[in-house]
Write the structure tokens for this entry.
Amino acid sequence: LNEIFLKDYQAPRYLIESTDMHFELHEQDTLVRTRMQVTANVDGGAGAAFELFGHEDVELCRIAINDQVLSEKDYQRQGEKLIVKSVPASFLCETLTRIQPQDNTALEGLYKSDGMFCTQCEAEGFRRITFYPDRPDVMSVFRTTVEADKALYPVLLSNGNPVEQGESDDGRHWITWEDPFPKPAYLFALVAGDLEYIEDSYPTMSDRDVKLLIYGEAKDLDKLEYAMASLKNAMRWDEEVYGREYDLDIYMIVAVDFFNMGAMENKGLNIFNTSCVLAHPKTTTDAGFQRVEGVVAHEYFHNWSGNRVTCRDWFQLSLKEGFTVFRDAEFSADMNSRTVKRVEDVALLRTAQFAEDAGPMAHPIRPASFIEISNFYTLTIYEKGAEVVRMIHTLLGEEQFRAGSDLYFERHDGQAVTTDDFVAAMEDASGRDLSQFRLWYSQAGTPELKFSDEYDPQAHRYVLHVQQSCPASPGQATKEPMHIPLAMGLLDQQGNDLTLVNGETTLVLDVTEAEQSFTFENIQSRPVPSLLRGFSAPVKSHYPYQRDELVFLMANDSDGFSRWDAAQKLAVDIMQSLIHDHQNGVALTLDPRLVDAFRAILEDSTLDKAMVAKVLTLPSEAYLSELATEIDVDAIHHVRNFVRKELAQGLESILLSVYEACELAGEYSPDAASIARRSLRNLCLSYLMATEEARYLALAEEQYVNADNMTDQSAALSMVAHSRFKQAAHKLLERFYKQWQDEALVVNQWFAIQATNPEPGTLADVEALMQHPAFDMKNPNKLRALLGGFCGQNAINFHMADGSGYRFLGDRILELNKQNPQVASRMLTPLTRWKKYGEARQQQMKAQLQRILDSDGLSKDVYEVVSKSLA
Ligand code: B3K
Ligand code: ZN
């Protein structure tokens, strides 16, 4: 299987001026007619062969150049490539293809979701529809006619504006859509179905009225309002913060049940996984509401960062994804609580992205090669990519960053460009040299900063020393020092920020060398450093803090993120020594400083409740695993539970009073303050449940019964379901299913809660649930809930010593490999981390990977991940 390299990039030999498509949708065969107006690319295309891509499942019925039908000797097939040997400098290429969307379980290209036709073309799905120069640097305007049975598919959509429609006597109808903006094929979309919609309008900054439509199944019509409100907020925000205005007269979103990812930014016609667009207090949790807001905004922001300016090739994926994630994170921060959003993003990055960056699939945010691009829609490209853009923002400051972004959009509007073009625009607008900074795009791995310091009381001088390093990653044995913006401050003994220069209390130091020292004069007493404020760079930082200093920072740091981080560091330090004790048979005792520090936080009623909840949430098992040299699954699980129980017992009465004080009256609202109260209240309840006292089971059951919203209901359910109160768990789970069996997304939560149960016996439950009538192996949301929940979020059960969890996953991957390669390859992730476990588990995990590798008919997706994991 061949690997594709960035260094081999060549400009396209031919460009497409316009594309005219006709879809004849049927229950069996769908016919696609494509007419492309093609011209040689100025830089030397004439005489060269014309290259198209088409998947093996696409039947080519006819291909003609300037009305001349080609015979097989006129072209050559090489895998997915179709090469027409000789063409004039300008010509019309017509194709007719036949496909079977109803049998398409890969959910790429044109497929059916619950009876409706829909598409997913990024990255290379368009070639599953027709033969086309399917590469992002070939951009064309599209005119698309969709024709189908009117009764079955009353709604027919594609990109752009509807321009013509008609119907025939045989019950069929058609609509033609025109998209005036040139776009790559990956942004093409089509939908046909029996859909309803809600409608609104948005007046843009230059006073054009844009029609907003959100489509879904009739039963979901009452769950679309929040997405609509979020869309309008996002449109306003992009005008105010980036000066970006929407460009078509109509913006559509369609909700579909079968979707491999969260959503897709197709020009003017976003297609969304129902899980990222439907929201209703009764069926959606607070986290769900925030996800809808964030994803709606993300896809909207792509209209500029992705569609108007797109990627030259797929190695540049982070150009649009990193930038757009940065944009949506800032949007969510502005709509809700900035610190809470930052804490959530950093927790995800440090847990999952750092693990990816330390594993066998580690890659720079601009990879140098790949076998299957679908495997590179990763936390690294998205989240680390966003951190890299955030660092540019930190280095340039708000104003210059905006100037850089303006220049980028102005310079490259309508073009397909590279990450380097983005950095160059930032440099040109700001005058800042980002040449060393560019290493962030080419070097993989998480850099580490090691700090030490010294204070001279006579000279009143404080010196901070820093060493940077970056571990080896696949194909990169050694790394150059990077340009790392280090936001920091110094606290005096009373906990006040010292003024450092120009009245500033937070400085951004440029860490650029392997070893560097920074000197601070006029420091009256030994300060406590606050390092990496706001998580100013995606690095691991090590400073030899004493536990008392961490308690001090938790209480005093002026940076909210750093207060949370100090609490995490304190809890990590304590849990790591307890893990060590546990491994050595030493009886566990909890450092009382953690209980005291947590009590102080709980007692301080001036603090933001959301932040209290974050600070009091212990570092996850996954984060402790990421930090461990060798993951001891059982010790980590045991110790974290021990600490939770100790905290619960030590803080029982205050937990109960905060629980009661956080009760909300009135109607549910997903605003930041209400979310904060619910999150703190549910955190208190989960600690109280950790005492394993029957009275708190009763309290959880009471909350379950009284809840008027899914956040409180599902929180109570999962606490009871994951407890040792088996009967109560069983009863509540049944009750929940009865109540919600007609709500697919809620049933998915029901699957996920059971799959993540840490109690013994869960694998058998999961196997049984796979036979449940509500489960469907073809639906990615259900797979993610059940299989993903068990293998990815239930370490103690997935890693059972007998290897049964691994075998179970191995079996499922082999089943999924053909059916849906993208989902199969994603589900593999937990097995790829085998190097971090003890010898016995390593052998069993590797055995499953080897078994997969040895089997026939592996998809590129699965092959790439398995082979790289075993290399
Ligand atoms: N751009 C899409 C991702 C498509 C993934 C295809 N395998 C969603 C997004 O990032 O907005
Ligand atoms: Zn995106």
